[in-house]
Design a protein that fits this description.
- This protein is mainly α.
- It has two domains: 108 residues, no CATH class; 66 residues, Alpha-Beta Plaits.
- It contains eleven helices and five strands.
- The strands form two sheets. The protein has a three-stranded antiparallel beta sheet, with no helix packed on it.
- The relative contact order is 0.09.
């Protein structure tokens, strides 16, 4: 039963492995090259994503929700769109690094339209890319492409804002047990909380959660687990006990 559950949860990975196995039989050369390319990108993700998760968790802690609502919320209008273009253009790292960052912004009140602008700018309007584009294709090509791309992003972000609703977005709400919350977006699966307080915390795949069958909360041990979390994903609300 557990094996079948794991297979369903990782269906995409299972399909990819099967495709590689089929290619290994019929096109071994192409399969080996594909495995090498996949290994390169996996190595890149392992190096980059932990840093992204830590920075996202820190921003989640330091930046109040009111600030995000004011400057990137649905009422921010042209100022929010401008800031979104700036955030996306000055970003660093591959596009997949933008997803946890944008998830944090959305949960703090950023509009779907501005999220689309940030992701699109991150993908095709980053300043280093524009400089290389100007170097190889010329300033006229770069400037015209930039203007047309910005116009397209504004149009499509408006359409996305009208079509996609909050209920259509994936929700990853923290699990709460006896006032203990684990931020699933921030959790990086390091298992530090499980080692520090195994009676309360457990792992579900690569994410930690509070054990709902646990009864006697040890505040000293909980404090130790909270302080030991590298991304500060654990919080305690006494009012919810």
């Amino acid at each position: 039963m557990k094996v079948m559950k794991r297979l369903k949860e990782n269906m995409f990975l299972v399909v990819v492995i099967l495709v590689y196995l089929i290619m290994l039989i019929f096109r071994p050369g192409l399969s080996v090259q594909g495995i090498r390319n996949s290994g390169y990108y996996i190595k890149e993700m392992i190096m980059i994503l932990p840093v992204v998760f830590i920075l996202t968790a820190l921003l989640d802690t330091w930046v109040p929700k009111e600030v995000i609502l004011k400057y990137l919320g649905s009422g921010s209008k042209w100022m929010g769109a401008l800031l979104s273009f700036v955030f996306g253009s000055i970003s660093a790292g591959p596009i997949y690094a933008a997803f946890p960052f944008c998830t944090m912004l959305r949960k703090k009140g950023a509009s779907i339209q501005n999220i689309v602008i940030i992701l699109s700018s991150w993908a095709v309007l980053k300043i280093p890319m524009l400089l290389n584009e100007m170097k190889f294709l010329g300033p006229t090509f770069m400037a015209l492409r930039w203007v047309l791309t910005v116009i397209s992003i504004i149009i499509f972000s408006g359409i996305m804002g009208k079509i996609i609703k909050e209920k259509d977005m994936i929700e990853n709400e923290p699990q709460v047990m006896k006032g203990v919350s684990v931020n699933q977006d921030a959790c990086m699966g390091c298992r530090a909380c499980v080692r520090n307080y195994p009676e309360l915390f457990a792992m579900d795949g690569k994410k930690a959660f509070a054990n709902q069958n646990y009864q006697d909360l040890n505040m000293e041990q909980l404090k130790h687990a909270m302080e030991g979390c590298p991304v500060k994903a654990i919080s305690y609300n006494e009012d919810s006990v």
